[in-house]
């Protein structure tokens, strides 16, 4: 461990959003529920960041949602998450999700960013490079996306991580595997160490 003040991410604040929650399960395939996997991954990433001195802010640490009744409930949920993150004034954010497709063979972790922010793009490409083994032979590239409210609304740089495809049986099994989750979280940690290391030079 590091002595006080020596921790590499001391003084850095990172917001982590575990996608979905509560009444919103996200993608669901067999026994694999996206909201639960997102939360486990988010906490795993957060623990590793905190261990190297980062201050971690979560949009949720339990199985909750911020939906309002009636039309626009989902939008209200996202707006609440955006408000939590903005109020915390983090240096950077990451939103954690799992993907799904009708094409059962699709696989691979992928990072999305909003093109309005050059630093988000840099972070996304840095993270994607570290995800080439998730799973092995993952050729996906970091991708610009202007349709995600969280990405377009937040004022600081950040990315949305689709950790993998729950619709792919083999990858769904991996995403629920503690060792795989741990390795994935380490790749995210390494990304932030690199990101902030370069920045402070
Ligand atoms: Zn999702």
Task: Assign the CATH superfamily.
Answer: Zn-dependent exopeptidases
> In percent, how much strand structure appears in the residues?
15-25%
According to CATH, what is the class? Alpha Beta
Largest beta-sheet characterization: 6 strands, mixed
Structural class by helix and strand composition = alpha/beta
Please, how many domains?
Answer: 1
**Strand sequence of the main sheet, in spatial order?**
4-1-5-8-6-7
The CATH topology name reads Aminopeptidase
Number of beta strands: 8
Q: If helices are DSSP runs of H or I spanning 4 or more residues, what is the number of helices?
A: 6
CATH architecture: 3-Layer(aba) Sandwich
- What ligand species are in this complex? zinc ion
Rounded to an integer in angstroms, the radius of gyration calculated over CA atoms is 16 Å
Shape: globular
Distance between the termini: 23 Å
Low-confidence stretches: none
**What portion of residues is helical?**
25-40%
Order of helices and strands: EEEHEHEEHEHEHH
Mean of all residue-level pLDDT scores: 95
Which structural traits does this protein have?
about 200 residues; alpha/beta; Aminopeptidase; 6-stranded mixed beta sheet; two-stranded antiparallel sheet; 6 helices; 8 strands; about 40% helix; binds zinc ion
Explain what you see.
The chain has 201 residues and is α/β, with parallel strands linked by helices. It has one domain (13-199): Zn-dependent exopeptidases (Aminopeptidase), CATH 3.40.630. The chain is built from 6 helices and 8 strands, in the order E-E-E-H-E-H-E-E-H-E-H-E-H-H. A hairpin with a 2-residue loop joins strand 2 and strand 3. The longest helix is centred in the last third of the chain and has 22 residues, at 178-199. The mean pLDDT is 95. Bound molecules: zinc ion. Zinc ion binds next to loops.
């Amino acid at each position: 461990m590091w002595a006080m003040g020596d921790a590499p991410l001391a003084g850095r604040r990172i917001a982590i959003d575990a996608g979905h929650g509560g009444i919103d399960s996200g993608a669901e395939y067999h026994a694999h529920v996206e909201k639960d996997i997102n939360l486990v991954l988010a906490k795993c990433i957060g623990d590793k960041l905190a261990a190297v001195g980062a201050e971690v802010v979560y949009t949720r640490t339990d199985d909750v949602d911020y939906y309002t009744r009636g039309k626009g409930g989902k939008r209200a949920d996202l707006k609440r998450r955006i408000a939590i993150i903005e109020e915390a004034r983090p240096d950077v954010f990451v939103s954690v999700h799992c993907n799904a497709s009708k094409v059962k063979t699709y696989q691979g972790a992928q990072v999305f960013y909003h093109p309005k922010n050059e630093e988000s793009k840099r972070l996304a490409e840095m993270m994607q490079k570290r995800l080439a083994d998730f799973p092995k032979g993952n050729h996906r590239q970091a991708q610009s996306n202007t349709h995600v409210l969280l990405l377009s609304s937040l004022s600081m740089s950040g990315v949305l991580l689709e950790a993998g495809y729950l619709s792919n049986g083999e990858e769904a099994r991996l995403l629920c595997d503690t060792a795989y989750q741990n390795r994935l979280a380490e790749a995210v940690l390494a990304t932030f160490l690199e990101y902030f290391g370069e920045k402070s030079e």
